[in-house]
Amino acid sequence: MKVLMFGWEFPPHISGGLGTACYGLTKGLSNMGAEVLFVMPSASGDEDESAVKIINASDIAVTESAKNVRNVLEKVQFLRVGTNMVPYLTPEQFTEEVEKNRRGQVKDYKSFLGQKYKFSGKYGSDLMEEVSRYAMVAAEIALRYDFDVIHAHDWLTYLAGTAAKRLTGKPLVVHVHATEFDRSGNNINTIVYDLEKLGMREADKVIAVSNLTRNTVINKYGIHPDKVVTVHNAVDFDGFEQLSVERGVDDKIVTFLGRITFQKGPEYFIEAAAKVIKRYPKVRFVMAGSGDLLNRSIRRVAKLGIATNFHFTGFLKGEDVKKMFAYSDVYVMPSVSEPFGISPLEAMRSNVPTIISKQSGVAEVLHHAIKVDFWDIDAMADAIYGLLAYPALPAMAVRNGLEEVNALRWDNAAFHVKEIYAELIK
């Protein structure tokens, strides 16, 4: 079984859980006997290809593989992303506008023929342009390679997956790791929402990382329940042996690790920290990550007068993440909306007692993590204090948590995903 898989990032160069999940799943699929061609916008050359073949979209020139440009664009009618619609057009004006847009697509595509596009693979201001170009390159890749099924991860690759499906007729699976409602609350980016909805509707099957996310896909995007299946994420066991580290302080360490954005709930972590420090002064709180709320978080820590007990590390990856877990006495994930959340599994795998928000998908599979509402800073502070002050509590959490997380392997998730493939290609 051959899988053409579209992603946006892959270890060691990642910005969050998406790349980690892609890595774990592809390794699991390889163990299940599947051959995975993993396409990414910009590969660095140091990615682990033991379980996948990496295709660098930046190395692929769009050629005349699809001899008839007009035929390609009739099937892939969405390569222009973010085009503003003009309101109040008459039927005649609307027809003219559509035809103008179609001619523009043909012109863009022809100008792209024979060219390579250097993707940044980042999440910058030209992201929509990259998403659009990625779909063009995906069409070329789909016509070059042999495969049985297409798998697209998150909205950034849904256009690419849809292009591949429309040109080849092969079944498409889209994997929802997060939705625009998770990232932005109710103040959603409508262009992103439309891309998500397009991908979900074009897909033959939609994989959600939790029942929480599955319900969002059904209720917010109008996708039929029979089409949406839940496959929970897992944890990669390689490299998570217990590290030996030397501390420079005797204080206990409580860690937040993730993007410092609204979705991840960093401000609730800070408020809970202030409450804990009053009761348990010999503690250090660490916020590891970066994001748009970083500066505001730093100012809030200063205003609360807890800066001597609070540290900002910036974004961590690879070995630094493992070291951070080794330093930690408690791990907290206070997410406002978390489709799944792999980091608690990694923390528990590293023998760190863990507190998670009830508003996270991972809460569906963890029974030995302490669960609190993200907004309940008193309950969060009490949970942190309990794990710091009463040794029997973290000892029990570590013992039971490690046993629990040992059952959450990527091979199990990959087995379910391969079953979905088999159902679609039979």
Explain how this protein is built:
The chain has 426 residues and is of the alpha/beta class. It contains 15 helices and 13 strands. It has helices at residues 17-31, 69-75, 91-112, 127-144, 158-168, 180-184, 190-202, 211-221, 266-279, 294-304, 319-327, 343-349, 377-389, 392-405, 410-425; strands spanning 2-6, 35-40, 53-56, 149-153, 172-176, 205-208, 228-230, 252-257, 283-288, 310-314, 330-333, 354-357, 370-372. Strand 9, helix 10 and strand 10 (310-314) form a beta-alpha-beta unit. The longest helix has 22 residues, at 91-112. It is globular, with a radius of gyration of 23 Å. The protein starts with a strand and ends with a helix.
Question: How do the helices and strands line up, and which of them pair or pack?
Answer:
Layout: E1 2-6, H1 17-31, E2 35-40, E3 53-56, H2 69-75, H3 91-112, H4 127-144, E4 149-153, H5 158-168, E5 172-176, H6 180-184, H7 190-202, E6 205-208, H8 211-221, E7 228-230, E8 252-257, H9 266-279, E9 283-288, H10 294-304, E10 310-314, H11 319-327, E11 330-333, H12 343-349, E12 354-357, E13 370-372, H13 377-389, H14 392-405, H15 410-425
Parallel strand pairs: 1-2, 1-4, 2-3, 4-5, 5-6, 6-7, 8-9, 8-11, 9-10, 11-12, 12-13
CATH class of the largest domain: Alpha Beta
Q: Report mean pLDDT, rounded to a whole number.
A: 87
| CATH overall fold name of the largest domain | Rossmann fold
Order of helices and strands: EHEEHHHEHEHHEHEEHEHEHEHEEHHH
Rg (CA only)? 23 Å
What proportion of the residues is helical, as a percent range?
A: 40-55%
Tell me the strand order in the biggest sheet: 3-2-1-4-5-6-7
Helix/sheet category: alpha/beta
Overall geometry:
globular
Low-confidence stretches: 78-89
Total domain count:
2
